[in-house]
Amino acid sequence: MHLSELTVTTLAERPEYADRLWGMPDSWAAFMLHDTAANACFGLVPELFPEYVLIATDRDGELVARGLSAPFALTSPKRGGLLPDRGWDAVLLWAVADHRRGDTPDTVTALEIAIRPDAQGTGLSTTLLTAMRRNAAARGFTDLVAPVRPSAKHQEPDTPMSDYAFRSRPADGLPHDPWLRVHVRAGATIEKVAPASMTIPGSLPEWRTWTGLPFDTPGPVLVPGALVPVHCDVTAGVAVYVEPNVWVRHRL
């Protein structure tokens, strides 16, 4: 697949893709589909913000990638321009709440860029990020922020995100992490860690189903695809995953 064969548009321009959006295969680990904020609100994003949802299609009209973003009011008096420590969960809830209240947005947040597995490694994530920046700028915004999920952090689950996020390559000073590197190359700056960006609680039977792991030992459990260990409480019969992300800011 060549990038020149792809068409990137908004869902508002091609609403017929709304029913196909979630049917596109992606590479999210099963446990990532059980974030409580996502289950409550993420499915509303295409309905509420179709002009901020990007779709990439091939020459046959097949969906190859999606990019979801949403406007919200970051500099309102109650938020004071501070990006939330609860990262992805918080900004998703803020965007939906602001829309329902009719608050005027001043910033756009990226929420997801998902690439069909057979199209990964083609540079399409950069294409979607560039399109997301341009889309936000075309709608009059000067800032696009993103609670980035570093793509290689799962290889170092015990490394504190505060160390990992700011690690750079000696050769060029760019971030060590590939996905953070894409953002910085596109013009972003790394602002801070969101220590509790996504929270996924579940019973031990649920976690066993999601991961195929026994979850029979108290304490941290290393789960493939998780950025940090999952905390297992055998006595209570529950386990909780609290994922840190990294806030980046694109000046448009």
General description of the model:
With 252 residues, the chain is of the alpha+beta class. It has a single domain, classed as 3-Layer(aba) Sandwich (Aminopeptidase), CATH 3.40.630.30. It is 24% helix and 28% strand. Strands 1, 2, 3, 4, 5, 6, 7, 8 and 9 form a nine-stranded mixed β-sheet that branches. A hairpin with a 4-residue loop joins strand 8 (230-233) and strand 9 (238-251). It starts with 6 loop residues before the first strand and ends with a strand. The model has no long low-confidence stretch (mean pLDDT 97).
Q: Secondary-structure blueprint of this entry?
A:
Blueprint: E1 7-10, H1 36-41, H2 45-48, E2 53-57, E3 63-72, H3 87-101, E4 107-115, H4 124-138, E5 143-148, H5 161-164, H6 178-185, E6 188-203, H7 204-211, E7 219-221, E8 230-233, E9 238-251
Parallel strand pairs: 4-5
Antiparallel strand pairs: 1-2, 2-3, 3-4, 5-9, 6-9, 7-8, 8-9
Structural domain tally: 1
The whole-angstrom Rg is 18 Å
- Give me the CATH fold name: Aminopeptidase
Would you report the number of β strands? Answer: 9
Reported for the largest beta sheet, the result is: 9 strands, mixed
In N-to-C order, the SSE pattern is: EHHEEHEHEHHEHEEE
- Structural class comes to alpha+beta
Which features would summarize this protein structure in a list?
24% helix, Aminopeptidase, nine-stranded mixed beta sheet, alpha+beta, 252 residues
